[in-house]
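Consider this today:
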Amino acid sequence: MTDPGLPPLSVAGRVDAVLDLLGSAGCDSLVVTDPSNIRWCTGFTGSTGVLIITSAGATLITDSRYQNQAPRQLSGAECGAAVEISPSPFKTGSRRLQDSTRVGLEASSITWAAQRTWADAIGGEVVATDALILELRSVKTSAELARIEVAASIVDESLAEAVELIEPGTRERDLAATIDAGMRGRGSAGPSFDTIVATGPNSALPHATPGDRAMQDGDLLVVDCGAVVDGYRSDMTRTFVVGDRPASDEIETLLEVVAEAQHAGVESVAAGVEAGTVDSACRDVIEAAGYGDQFGHGTGHGVGLDIHELPAVRKGNTGILQPGHVLTVEPGIYVAGLGGVRIEDTVVVTTDGFRVLTRFPKNPLV
């Protein structure tokens, strides 16, 4: 359910924006199968659906479970697409595409078997499209930003409540469960990805799964979590030290280097800047400190209806940041056997720079 305090989320004009791109993609119609793309275009949140976009109009095909929900959601989101209830999207879709000569299929969200079924049903040429709608989705409206900002504040508040558990003896899974419960209690639909809580040597694993390991005095502790509000996500990582002080001088060095790198990366965010420049700002600091080989992932990613969207904040990406882009800045250093440090914020690009949406303090000692 949408928070009544949030501004209405209109999708008016989005199908037309997709239509305008079809020619450059080498097709005259599009079969949208990615659930997030369908939601972005229509406002429909059901688990089953196919959106057919042609010059004659758009049709959402779904099954009888959504015969009431689908028309209501499309109307509420100001989407003019028709709704057709059918047990066979291939057969129904092929009728809608009978005047098309080159039909686009979303390459990243369709299986080989489904591609062959669509090709047989259409009886014409199918064309693979790549990131067509993702490019449009990457620039958020003010209503989308409002949802991401609320999701970010939920993470801030939930982690602030859970930090009292950061002490020797607390298990990783118990802290993760407390954070998840806190986010749900504050209105999140759930975690925006599997919450990461990793202590000691486990913190050197960027995507560690919370387990039964108990925190020990001097451990590094990495917490990576996000909330979901009306479909839109947030993402934040903080690194803590369990107890009064780091277990070694090297841990203290890691904390200082990553904090400097993350600050440099955030400060480099601006409209007109290449996404790769943000990555370089972080990576240069870490490499200068001698830990370049221990920073193996990209600096960040876009955030929205999916936890990983455009823009990709990685080395060499020449894509230009635009106002309305929402991205993470999350450099890290991971030393096997010792531990890892990652600090991450969700940041929105503005006309005059940036705004950080995740505001929980970055002090590693609590």
The longest strand covers residues 57-62. The chain has two domains: 14-137, 142-356. The chain is about 30% helix and 20% strand.
